[in-house]
Amino acid sequence: MSETTDERTARDRISFLRTLRAFRSFRPDPVPQEIIDDILEVARWSGSASNKQPWEILVVRERDTLRSLSSVEGYAGHLAGAPLGIVLIMAGDRAEQETYDEGRLAERIMLAAHAHGIGSSIGWIVGSGRDAAKELLGIPQEKVVRTAISLGYPDEGARRSSAGRGQARKPLGRIVHEERYG
Amino acid sequence: MSETTDERTARDRISFLRTLRAFRSFRPDPVPQEIIDDILEVARWSGSASNKQPWEILVVRERDTLRSLSSVEGYAGHLAGAPLGIVLIMAGDRAEQETYDEGRLAERIMLAAHAHGIGSSIGWIVGSGRDAAKELLGIPQEKVVRTAISLGYPDEGARRSSAGRGQARKPLGRIVHEERYG
């Protein structure tokens, strides 16, 4: 029996979700505005606890800003070589829910980029880097800033040389249980 | 100029991401095993801080278990009427990163379900419900359990009557900044 359009569409979407990987090396080409618009629209429709949408989003393309942000305490060094950064600004009201919702939002932004062949990587800001990032970007003190996502067209040379490095996943047999644990 | 296959594919994927919504009312039909397999595979490939994959996944189809789980402290009442529940079991080592990674994982599970027309909703377990859920499911005390996702084919009647209720989103003008905050 030949595959239906619905089956083909489902298969494409699953493959699309499954193949998201982090990229940290980018070509210098800018990310087109239409693609940024799509990413923001997907971000806007993210779900959140009690639909609070406890976020704002800062789009950064200025080289100097990206470079400064890349050097604050944390793991956002890859921002220095990215043509685009998206900083997540959380409300700072409910720590646990907002951390969880921020993960949901970050995942959607990476997927929306991936839909257009744009690679991305989460830059995780820690310690004094969080205040430094707020200071740098003019963000009020009460907000929480810990995610700066690098985005750009993947550098294919770097992609090949990094393939397999730290990207493996545990087999399902090690993580899935049925009905009861263990 | 006519649209290329790549453009069409990108458009479908963005529309697919944008249209994810939470569903809490399900038809009783079981979710086919091939779809559960796809959801687990997409879950397995989730990204996490330092690629730690600090999770295990419990698949629950037994009616009595779902009903018991729906009544622990929290917001997972919709599990009682779902044919399938997926419980996320976090390692319990690094609170902030794991909460964030759990959000990423939950989002991917919902999207993989959505790829197959399966609706879902995050059941958020709080307070004493977390220990109760672990006790009920035989999960070791040191793990963190706060997410039980309901899944099933959406009940279309309920879908229509709930349309627009609590699902609106803020306009982009209220959440997006460029280069600097404010």
Automatic annotation (TrEMBL), chains A, B:
Coiled coil spans = none
Q: Where is this region: Disordered?
A: 156-182
Q: Which organism is it from?
A: uncultured Rubrobacteraceae bacterium
Residue span(s) of domain Nitroreductase: 21-67, 70-153
Name the record gives this protein: Nitroreductase
Keyword Repeat tagged: no
Extract one GO molecular function annotation from the record. Answer: oxidoreductase activity
Q: Which family does it belong to?
A: Belongs to the nitroreductase family.
Which CDD domains does the entry mention?
A: Nitro_FMN_reductase (cd02062)
**Is the keyword Nucleus assigned to this protein?**
no
Q: Tell me the keywords, alphabetical order.
A: Oxidoreductase
Its domain of life reads Bacteria
